[in-house]
Amino acid sequence: SLRCSCVSGLSGVDDVHVFISSGENVRLSCNNALHDCKSTAWIYNRFSHSETVELIAGGIKKTDTESYERLSLGSDCSLNIKNIIKEDYGSYTCRQYVNDQQQGTDARVYLHVLHVSSSSSSSSQTEISAGLSVTLFCQLYSSAGVSCDEWIRSKGIDLFWVNQAGVKLTRSDSRYQISAPDHCIITLNTTLLNEDLNREWRCEVTHRDQLKTSATYTDKRPARADSTTAETPVHSTNSTTTTPATSGSLFRMIVIIVEFAVFAAPTVIFLQIICDRRAENKEKL
Questions:
Q1: DSSP secondary structure string, 168-228?
Q2: FRET partner for 255 with CA separation of 20 to 30 A, picked from 11, 55, 270, 278?
Q3: Which residue ranges make up each domain of the chain?
Q4: Which CATH number among 2.60.40.1230, 2.60.40.1610, 3.40.50.150, 2.60.40.10 corresponds to the domain 2-218?
């Protein structure tokens, strides 16, 4: 499904701001589309003065862009992006051309991407276990003509962590160390407990206390199996491996017995005939 949490007028009268988390799909509306999409072009800029990348021209996808496979044009000329990555943030402009002449004004959409990552005192994710320290990083990747920090502070946008029950985590909670190097980054540090397995911590973005998007981190470290469960698969594996070997040995033994019986039967019959003839000769004498 395509998600869109939009806010209009944060930077300009006709500008639209869309908040999305990495990994999701998003739909960016084209508010100046004509009767069909053959005149539609979508242009991307990560920063206000960065290189311009043409994504759609004449209603057709450009094949020389990094995001080519994740893009599609909707029937209403909207730009659909699948599996958002943090590098997708920036300005997307919908523009109309007729006979190579621009028609009307640009329709600009600012895409803000929320991304959560983690690091731990363990060098490997598979080694993460209770007692280790984990730091969660939540960052809003944003470019709206000014720095992310300046833009967020001026527009009443907040980032914060909540627990699985949706309760906001604060610095007063001794279990968590929360810090915000600037308004676009907030970190959460904690020491994992056994009961944290599959627990979720969620980073939320709000605009004037209204939720715009959120990104979740789930403790997915492998559970430690107890001695009973650990022994079961080993026993099962051995049984599975051993049973066919035993059956094979039994089968070979049966074959040997049958072969012996087949070859021994004529000999027994022959001896029986000789004995019968000797008995007949004695009776005649």
A1: BP-TT-TT-EEEEEETTEEEEEEE--GGGTT-EEEEEEEETTEEEEEEEEE--PPPPP-HH
A2: 270
A3: 2-218
A4: 2.60.40.10
Predicted TM-score (pTM) of this structure:
0.71
Return per-residue pLDDT of the chain as tens, 285 residues. Answer: 445 555 554 444 468 999 999 999 999 999 999 878 999 999 999 987 888 999 999 999 998 888 889 999 999 999 999 999 999 999 999 999 999 999 999 999 999 999 999 987 554 444 557 788 999 999 999 987 678 888 888 888 999 999 999 999 998 888 999 999 888 999 999 998 888 888 899 999 999 999 999 999 987 766 554 433 333 233 222 322 333 444 455 556 655 565 555 455 555 454 555 555 555 555 444
Residue 279: which H helix or E strand, with range?
Answer: helix 227-284
